[in-house]
Design goal:
- The chain is mainly α.
- The chain folds into two domains: about 10-55 and about 250-439, no CATH class; about 65-240, no CATH class.
- The chain has 16 helices and four strands.
- The two termini are about 50 Å apart.
Length: about 450
């Protein structure tokens, strides 16, 4: 699986689903050079025998199950109000009818999937996906059946704009302690930011001569998603307000964010990453460690913490500093390995096994051994998700298929990166905790 020029790891992971799967599954018919090492799907299945660790919900303040039940019930009721599956008498346009029926089916699947999620946060995320699908179907049917227009959707968006302003007026960085305030308010900020982005897309939508019910459906999809994100943010904030000992931690977070911005700048300079050009692409013969090192260097060079601080986003700046400090530690680890010749250059299935085992064990250790688990989980929850993502890609190789190890470039790079970052998580958490405790 060779890397396309200019594509970063983040872009690959964000859009890899079908593309990466297609490049792995059913590859037995592809030519393999005589000198290329290979691995079979059967051997990969043994490599994946030990599942990624199960990391508890990354938020110390969880979504209440009764709240999530109410959200699911509201979505079920909204979907039930639409007479699906649609027939030709309801929507004569066949292409439009098929689209709405597909989205209706997707909405029901999303609601079913949400009910099966293992943690409240993951269930909330799946329900946000279901909201989009339900919003699309309900909005589209309203356009067909009742003449709903894009300006109608924008008018509803103006109401949401007022709701956002009202929430932001009452939102403060509450928490029973500074770590709780950081982690939960960072999640709230992410929801609000996404809500505002979705609302801006709704308000930017314009009626055209070619506008159809599908355009209305797309606008309502964005609006439903934005409404749901604000509803989730408000719920988390109310949960914080109800906590024993909860008070405004804004001053502590502001001081810690400033200190951590300086700490990141110092560490970045110490390892020679304060400036320098970004790398466009990796050498085709680069090892997974060299590829991971390249991507980590570029990520660490991106200085977004100062911009976040300038807007008063102290929880986001602190969480961003946590991730950057872990990334800098990972750069040091990989530089040492590559420089000393200790990095694995995969030449056999056993090398694949070793890379994957190292990644899994590093995440387990970071999760089990850290002194600040609430901070650790900000990273380990995500790293475990990347492990599951890669495992899913590898598991789709048919048992009887044989593929060249070179086709696993992306997966092995991501595993190496997971391991290196995981080994630095606990130190990053300790640095963040010290900054928060000093304030």
């Amino acid at each position: 699986m060779r890397e396309s020029s200019g594509r970063t790891r983040r872009a690959v992971l964000a859009g890899a689903g079908a593309t990466v799967t297609a490049s792995l599954a059913g590859c037995s018919g592809l030519p393999i050079g005589e000198s290329q090492p290979t691995v079979t799907g059967e051997r990969l299945s043994t490599i994946l025998a030990d599942e990624p660790p199960s990391i508890p919900d990354r938020l110390p303040v969880a979504f209440e199950s009764t709240y999530l039940d109410d959200v699911a019930n509201d979505l079920e009721s909204a979907l039930a109000s639409v007479p699906t599956p649609f027939g030709a008498d309801q929507i004569p346009n066949g292409a439009m009818r098929d689209r709405f029926n597909r989205n209706s089916a997707a909405a029901r699947e999303a609601l079913t999937a949400a009910a099966e999620e293992p943690t409240p946060r993951e269930r909330a995320g799946s329900l946000r996906h279901a909201r989009r699908e339900v919003g699309y179907v309900v909005g589209g049917w309203a356009a067909v059946d009742d003449g709903r227009t894009v300006p109608d959707v924008r008018d509803d968006g103006e109401g949401l704009r007022e709701d956002i302003h009202a929430f932001r007026r009452r939102w403060t960085y509450l928490g029973a302690d500074a770590i709780e305030a950081t982690v939960v308010n960072d999640a709230i900020a992410g929801l609000v930011r996404s809500c505002i982005g979705g609302l801006n897309r709704v308000l930017a939508t314009r009626e055209r001569d070619t506008t159809t019910a599908l355009d209305v459906a797309e606008a309502d999809e964005q609006l439903a998603s934005a409404r749901g994100e604000l509803r989730d943010a408000s719920h988390l904030f109310d949960r914080l307000r109800a906590r024993d000992g909860a008070r405004d931690r804004g001053d502590a977070l502001a001081g810690a964010a400033d200190a951590l911005a300086d700490r990141v700048a110092d560490r970045r300079a110490a390892v020679g990453l304060a400036e320098g050009p970004f790398t466009a692409e990796a050498d085709r013969e680069a090892t997974p460690a060299e590829r991971a090192l390249r991507d980590l260097r570029d990520d660490v060079r991106r200085d977004e913490i100062g911009e976040t601080l300038a807007t008063g986003g102290f929880p986001q700046a602190i969480v961003g500093a946590h991730g950057t400090l872990a990334g800098i530690g990972a750069v040091e680890t990989l530089r040492s390995r590559v420089g000393s010749g200790e990095a694995i250059d995969p030449a056999s299935p056993e090398d694949v096994d070793a890379i994957r085992t190292r990644a899994r064990e590093a995440v387990v250790a970071a999760h089990e051994d850290g002194e600040y688990p609430r901070l650790d989980r900000v990273q380990t929850h995500r790293l475990a998700a990347v492990l599951r993502y890669v495992d899913d890609r590898l598991a789709r190789v048919d048992a009887d298929d044989e593929i060249a190890l070179s086709r696993l470039d992306w997966e092995l790079r991501d595993l190496v990166r997971v391991e290196a970052v995981a080994r630095s998580v606990n130190d990053a958490s300790a640095a963040v905790a010290r900054a928060l405790e000093r304030e």
